[in-house]
User: Fold these one by one.
Assistant:
Number 1:
Amino acid sequence: MAWIFLFVAGLLEVAWAYTMKLSLGFTKPVPSILTIVAMIASFTLLSIAMKSLPLGTAYTIWTGIGAVGAFLLGILVLGEPANAMRIGAAALIVTGLVMMKFSS
C-alpha cells in the first residue's frame, strides 16, 4: 500500500505544481485553493508512505514523479520546449527512480 500512497502523492505533486502555475503567484483564488489542497494531500500521503518506506527512497521517488510529471505536463499542456537535452535529463531521472525502486 505504501507504494500506491507514494505514487498518488507524486501525482498530487504534479497537480499542485500545475495549479500553482495557474494561480499566477497566488493571485487567482481557485487555482490557489486547489494548490493548497493538493499540497496538503500530497504531503499527507507521502508521510503515510514514509511509515514503511525508507526516507531516502520515498522522498526521491516522490520528487522524481513530481519533476518528471511536471516536465511532461509542461510540454504537453503548456507548450514548453522538448529538446534533446531536456528529454535526456528526464530520462536520467526516470532511470534513477527505477533503480531506487528496485534497491528497496
Number 2:
Amino acid sequence: MSKQFTIQQISQITGLTAHTLRYYEKIGLLDGVARNESGYRKYRESDLLWIDFLIRLRETRMPISEMKQFSDLRSQGKATIKERRTLLERHQNKVTKQIADLEENLLKIEHKIAHYKALEEEDI
C-alpha cells in the first residue's frame, strides 16, 4: 500500500495552508482526494506530485482559471493530451517572456549599481 498523508502533513511538505488545499479541492484542482472512515482527507503520493505541479504553475503566475482548465482536461484522460500540451506551451511562452523581462530589469539595476559605485570612487 502506498504512503498516505494527512492534510497537515501535505501542508508541511508543500508549504500550502490547509485552507488552500481545501480551496483547491473545492474548485476542482484537487480531484478525488480519498477520505478515511472518519471523513479525514488521506492524500496519496500521486496527489502530492499533482500538488507540486500546481504549485509550480502558480509560482509561474498561471491564473487559477487556467490551472482549473488544465485540471479539468487532465481529469478527462488521454483524449485531451494535445489540449493540455497546447495550454502548457502557451504558459511556457509567458514564463519565457517573464524571465526575459526580469533579466532586462536586472541588467538595468546592475548598471545603476555600477553607476553609483563609479560616483563613490570619484569622491575618494
Number 3:
Amino acid sequence: MIDGPFFALTVVGVLGTGLVAGVFCAFSAFVMRGLTALPPAQGVAAMQAVNAAAVRPAFMAVFLGSAVLCAVIAVVTFALWPRGAVELLLGSALYLFGSFGVTAAANVPRNEALGRLRPGTAEAAAYWPSYLREWTAWNHVRTVASAAAALTYVLALT
C-alpha cells in the first residue's frame, strides 16, 4: 500500500478527478439535454453563460489543480516507482489526456466558436445542433476518462 505524503497526494487525486467526473457527468446526464430542449437562441445564450461561469476560480481550481496534481503524481511515480505505479500512471494519463487534453482540443474550441455568435442569429441557430452533438460526445469522453482516473487512483491505494 502507498503511504506517507504520496498516499495523501493520491487521495487528493481521487477527490479532484472524481469531482471533475461528477461535473462532466452532470452535463452529459441532464444539462445538455435541458439545453437541447430550448429554442436555439435560448440554448446558445444559456450555454454562453455557463461557459463564462465555468472559468471562475471555483471550477478552475479543481479542474486545473487536478491536472497539476496528476502531473506531479506521474513524475513522482516515475521517480519512486511505488507499489501501484501502473495504476498511478494510468490514472494520470487518463486525466491529463482524456479529460484535460480533450477539453483543450475539443470542448474549448467549440465553446470559443459558440462564444463568437450572437444568440438570435441564423448563424447561431445553424451552429447550435452540431455544437450540441459534438460537444456532448466529447464531454462523454471527458466524463469516462475522469471517472476512470479516479478509479485507477483508488486501485493504486489498495
